[in-house]
TrEMBL record:
Signal peptide start and end residues: none
Name of this protein: Probable imidazolonepropionase
InterPro entries xrefs: Amidohydro_3, HutI, Metal-dep_hydrolase_composite, Metal_Hydrolase
Pathway(s) served: Amino-acid degradation; L-histidine degradation into L-glutamate; N-formimidoyl-L-glutamate from L-histidine: step 3/3
Domain Amidohydrolase: 128-424
Gene Ontology CC terms: cytoplasm
One matching Pfam family: Amidohydro_3
Family recorded in the similarity comment: Belongs to the metallo-dependent hydrolases superfamily. HutI family.
Catalytic reaction equation(s): 4-imidazolone-5-propanoate + H2O = N-formimidoyl-L-glutamate
EC category: hydrolase
One GO MF term: metal ion binding
GO BP: L-histidine catabolic process to glutamate and formamide
Domain of life: Eukaryota
Length: 432
């Protein structure tokens, strides 16, 4: 057997595995009691997969005659799995800082949307932008996310609302996936809003008869890899019936159902998602008790987005009720021109303070459960042998500092590693 490896991270004060028995997700007590090794090391092979993780002394003995392309001495530091951001809209042109001012002055999200702003404003600018402009800004945003610890990120289309721009966005995401050292799960979200001048029925028809068939051709030809299908199921956007037909058609294409539901009004989106076998539903600020029970039973993950409730001053999603009912709770940044946040550490902090999650629950939600929401928890979301060697090294002796120090991740994160390669190194780290 070869004794050459890509990376050894040795002697960490804590190695947070999150889980260690091949769990696909964590719920209830499992989220409270994360697997942590005190004084541990991790070995990543040349194939980018984890070969060993365990007590530092055991690893030192087991790999005494091995050679490593790189060794990180993590004495006094913590190692965590790379963070997983389960919901973002990172491909767009034209910021909406002016709308932030309107909302601070009292306008609601739907006031702005109905007045032709919001998603419509971004659609106009994104349709006009070239692929290279979109790719350049996407790259910058992904770099910012990565520096904040994200190593797997879901990226949606949805600012085209017609075939050409939706395809342009998905191709830009595909190019990022091919060329950037970050894992991407891509989502077709052509039903993000009803285009100006069209009815819901016309928009649904266009998606079913024009956009999805062309997407199928690209997927079959191997020119696009798309993982998930999304719809914004909301009053004044896509109703339950149109949502159902679009999601079902996406599922027939082999896409995972992962959609926006019960955000501003109770729509019975959670029940619909459970019925269709959705992998995940995002937002859920207005989910009902029945919806919570249906999601728990169907093992449909709830992707909660603390930045949205915070920025729009919405009621907080009922994280505690969901956790107690056994729902698989995950987290996402919801990065988009409305909620401009690239940082999962800040998202975890908000989840703890505003949604009353514990720090362990928040970390599980931002790692193994977010990976589950993207159908990737067999390869990502925890530090276990044979999973991808994606991890963070923090310059603090306890991992909880990543959540506790609000906005402190820039100084705390010393290394971000993807498949055993250091993709970000920060020489300016500061301890406590
Ligand atoms: N709610 C719908 N979609 C996004 C917002 C997109 C936008 O405002 O541009 C969300 O998840 O928050
Ligand atoms: Zn969204």
């Amino acid at each position: 057997m070869s004794r050459d490896y890509r990376l050894l991270v040795k002697n960490a004060k804590q190695v947070v595995l999150v889980c260690s028995r091949g769990e696909k997700y964590l719920t209830q007590h499992g989220m409270q009691d994360l697997s942590v090794i005190e004084n541990g090391s991790v070995v990543i092979g040349r194939d980018g997969l984890i070969k060993a993780v365990g007590p530092a002394e055991t690893i030192a003995a087991q790999f005494a005659d091995a050679s490593f392309d790189k060794v990180i001495n993590a004495t006094g530091m913590c190692v965590l799995p790379g963070l997983v951001d389960a919901h973002t809209h990172p491909v767009w042109a034209g910021d909406r800082v002016h709308e932030f001012a309107m909302k601070l002055a009292g306008a609601s999200y739907m006031d702005v949307h109905r007045a032709g702003g919001g998603i419509h404003f971004t659609v106009e600018h994104t349709r006009a932008a070239s692929s290279s402009e979109l790719l350049a800004s996407l790259r910058d945003r992904l770099v910012r996310m990565q520096r904040a610890g994200t190593t797997l990120v879901e990226c949606k289309s949805g600012y085209g609302l017609e075939l050409q721009t939706e395809l342009k966005m998905l191709q830009v995401i595909e190019e990022a996936r091919r060329t950037l050292p970050i894992n991407i799960s891509s989502t077709y979200c052509g039903a993000h809003a009803v285009p100006r001048g069209k009815t819901v029925a016309e928009a649904t028809e266009n998606i079913l008869q024009v956009q999805l068939p062309r997407l199928r051709e690209h997927m079959e030809a191997g020119t696009l890899k798309v993982n998930n299908i999304d719809v914004f199921c909301e009053q004044g956007v896509f109703d339950l019936g149109s949502t159902r037909s679009i999601l079902k058609a996406g599922k027939d294409l082999g896409l995972n159902i992962n959609f926006h539901g019960d955000e501003l009004h109770p729509m019975n989106s959670a029940q619909l998602g459970a019925e269709l076998g959705a992998l995940a539903i995002s937002h859920l600020e207005e989910v009902t008790d029945q919806g919570i029970r249906a999601m728990a039973k169907a093992q449909t993950a709830a992707v909660l987005l603390p930045t949205t409730a915070y920025i729009l001053r919405l009621p907080q999603p009922r994280a505690r009720d969901m956790l107690e009912a056994g729902v698989i709770v995950a987290l996402g940044s919801d990065f988009n021109p409305n909620a401009y946040c690239c940082s999962m550490p800040i998202v975890m902090h908000l989840a703890c303070v505003n949604m009353r999650m514990s720090m362990s629950e928040a970390l599980a939600a931002a790692t193994i459960n977010a990976a589950y929401a993207l159908g990737c928890s067999n390869t990502h979301g925890s530090l276990e042998v044979d999973k991808h060697g994606d991890l963070l090294v923090l310059s603090s002796p306890r991992w909880e500092h990543l959540i506790y120090q609000l906005g402190g991740h820039q100084e705390l994160i010393g290394y971000v590693v993807v498949k055993g390669n250091v993709v970000y190194e920060n020489n300016q780290t500061m301890g406590l």
